[in-house]
Amino acid sequence: MTDPYSVRLPLFEGPLDLLLHLIKKNEVDIYDIPVALIAGQYLEYIDMMKELNLEVAGEFLVMAATLAQVKSRMLLPPKEGVAGSEEDGADPRAELVKRLVEYKRFKDAAAELGEREGFWREVFAREAKGAWEESDEPAEEPLFNFGLFDLIDAFKRVLATVPEGRFHEIVGEGVSITEKINLILSRLEGVESITFESLFEGADGRPEVIVCFLALLELARIRAIKVLQVDEFGTIRIMKAVKEDGVSEA
Fold it and tell me: What is the mean pLDDT of the chain?
């Protein structure tokens, strides 16, 4: 890349969101977390976020240390002590599981309340509006209709297809994020949408793939595009935020 570029998205998903994502992705029981597996994948995500210059908050690193501690405690033989003590037969994962279950409960409740709010807003229209009330302008849609970590998952799959041996081919050439932004917008001219994977076709090495992904995030941040996923873990599609007349789907 020609110069460092830091991505600051107006959305936040914390370490507990990442853990819940990994638990769901691996289809494991939240009450019986395979810590070694989840911890390894968690660190992979942290490394990926750092490589993309996504802001990694301190709590992500605290959770990484917590996972390492839990993992090490599970590898140690049971400590002999007074019956009923904290270390006598206690599952090192218990506190973490408690936090995850509680967080998931509040997150699900918030999502349900949000759905209800949207439903009742459609059912009951306001007859009059005071100066203190909100405007009639529609609320901004979320950047993605799925989790940020789902998007990183899709990006990791794309990176896995890029041969490592092609790094030398683009050294010194420089890859401009502005050029990639313009290229993505031009790809969206005259079509309903394009697939996420198609954005990276013809990319010449890992740096260019990363720059293309950063350009996509920037376009989503300024709400020039929509990033949608119809089915869970399904194909991710990119479309312009404002539809054009007579367009066709790619």
Answer: 78
Are 133 and 154 part of one and the same domain?
A: no
Tell me, yes or no, if the pTM score tops 0.90: no
- For 31-56, the pLDDT digits (tens) are 999 999 999 999 999 998 888 877 77
- Report helix, strand and coil shares of the chain as percent, to nearest 5: 50, 5, 40
- Can you tell me the mean pLDDT for 72-84? 69
Domain count, the chain: 2
b (16+ CB within 10 A) / e for 25-53: eeeeeeeebebeebbebbeebbebbeebb
Count Cβ atoms below 10 Å from residue 20 Cβ, excluding itself. Answer: 18
For residue 3, give its domain range: 1-139
Tell me if 250 is assigned to some domain: no
